[in-house]
Design a protein that fits this description.
Length: 152
């Protein structure tokens, strides 16, 4: 057998050995998902919940993991059974997308408002024209009299 043939057979054998192991390497572990699922009794993430219901959910998730389901499949199964409130984060589609977009829009608006106010304050503070109200004739004559009386 030539070296190339031996190398090709070795590569093929390695591929056959590692191919079935690939899904096991890509499988989800419980710590990967427990912080993304809420306890429906405590309303806290499952990784800190201590209620008996949380233990039931943990067992259910472990069964789904043992079946080889992916993280997304497990979350979809739980959401279908218990509703979207079981997930720690809202979905990124439909009306729930507003949970992500509204805070960003508010932050951008506040940043823009801050920039506008800072520009105005700096413009007025740096020799910006300051308009005083015009004095009437009576006020001007009274001011002149006062200034003369105090020695100007």
């Amino acid at each position: 057998m030539s070296r190339k043939l031996k190398a090709s057979l070795a590569a093929l054998l390695a591929l056959c050995v590692l191919a079935p192991a690939t899904p096991a390497l890509a499988a989800v572990s419980f710590p990967d998902i427990e912080d993304e699922v809420m306890c429906d009794t405590c309303n806290v993430p499952l990784n800190i919940a201590e209620a008996p219901r949380a233990d039931q959910l943990r067992r259910e998730i472990n069964k789904l993991i043992a079946r080889g389901e992916t993280k997304e499949q497990i979350k979809a199964t739980l959401s279908q059974r218990y509703g979207p409130a079981i997930l720690a984060l809202p979905p990124t589609s439909g009306f729930s997308l507003s949970a992500y977009l509204v805070p960003l829009a508010v932050a951008a608006g506040l940043l823009l408002l801050g920039i506008v106010l800072i520009v105005r304050w700096r413009r007025n503070g740096r020799g910006g024209e300051h308009h005083e109200p015009a004095l009437g004739d009576d006020d001007v004559s009274r001011l002149d009299d006062e200034l003369e009386r105090f020695g100007r």
